[in-house]
Amino acid sequence: MYKIIFIDIDGTLRNDKKEITNRTKIEIQKIVEKGIPIVICSGRYRQYTEEVSKEALASDYVIACNGGEIYNYKDKEIIYENNLKKQTIIDLYQLAKKYDVEFDINSRDKKIVFNKSDSILEESVEEFVETHTSTQCVFADGDATKIKAIKAEIDKLEDIEIINLSKSLLYENVPVEPLVFLDVVCKGTSKGNAIKKLCEYLKINLKDCVAIGDSYNDLPMFGVVGHRVVMGNALEDIKKVADEVTDSNNEDGVAKFLEKLNKEVF
User: Fold this and answer.
1) Long-range contacts, stretch 110-116, CB < 8 angstroms, 24+ apart
2) Within this chain, do residues 165 and 213 fall inside the same structural domain, yes or no?
3) What are 128-155's pLDDT values in tens digits?
4) How far apart are alpha carbons 106 and 135 in whole angstroms?
5) pLDDT per residue over 196-220, tens digit each?
C-alpha cells in the first residue's frame, strides 16, 4: 500500500490554464483525509509552491526549487536546504549580465528578479547574498541562443548543475518556447534526493512512494520511488520510465489516477 504521493505542478497538477480542477482537489482531499500525505514538488520557490499546495488541499510538506528545499508550512519548519554559495550566485549573476538575460534568485519566500524592469530590489546582488540564502538561480530570455551559450559555460563548472531547462534545449523536434530558461542548483540537488530525505524524516520506505510528473526535472523522482506515473502530455523519453501513463494535464490525468487509487487501493 502506498504511504505518500509526490506531485509536480506545471504540466501535471495544473492544466495549461494554470488551473487545479475541482475534480483533482476532491481526490487529493480524500487521500489526505485518509492519512496519506500528498506532497507538491516544484521547480518554483518555496512560497509559490506552498500557495499551490494550499490551493490543491494537499499536505503541509512541500518540496521546492527542484529539491533544494523541503518545508513544513504548518509548523514553519525547514527540514532540508541545499544552498548555493554566495560567490557562486554572484558569479552566475555576472554571467547573466554578460549575455543580458533575466536572472532570478529563488530565495526562501520569494523570487528576486534582476536585469529586468520589474526588479523588486534596490540593493546589489552582492548586498543581497549577505542577508539571504538561495537554493536555485534561473536564467531566462526570449533568445534561445543566449541561453544555450550560458548552458555551455555552466556545463564546465564543478560545484553546480543545471537541474531543469526548456524542452527546446533538450530536444531538436520541440518548438522554441517564447521564454527559454534553465535552472541552476548545487550539485546533488534534485527532487529525487529531496524525496529520499523527506521519506527518511517521515520513516517511509521509498518503495511505498508514488511520484506523478511530466518533465525532465521529474526524472530524479521517478528514479527513487516505488511507482512512477507519467502524464499523457509528457515527451516520449519521459514516458519510457513510467510504470503507468495517465491522461494529460488538460484531461484531469492526476484526478483520474487518484480516483483509481481511492477505489482500488485506499
Assistant:
1) 110/45, 110/47, 111/44, 111/45, 111/48
2) no
3) 899 889 999 999 999 999 999 999 999 9
4) 7
5) 999 999 999 999 999 999 999 999 9
Number of domains in the chain: 2
Q: Give the CATH number of the domain where residue 136 resides.
A: 3.30.1240.10
Q: Is 200 left (phi over 0), alpha (psi -120 to 50) or beta?
A: alpha
CA–CA separation, 238 and 229 (whole Å): 10
Give the pTM.
Answer: 0.93
> Which residues contact residue 38 at a Cβ distance below 8 angstroms, ignoring those fewer than 6 apart?
4, 5, 6, 7, 28, 31, 32, 56, 58, 59
Contact 137, 89 (CB under 8 A): yes
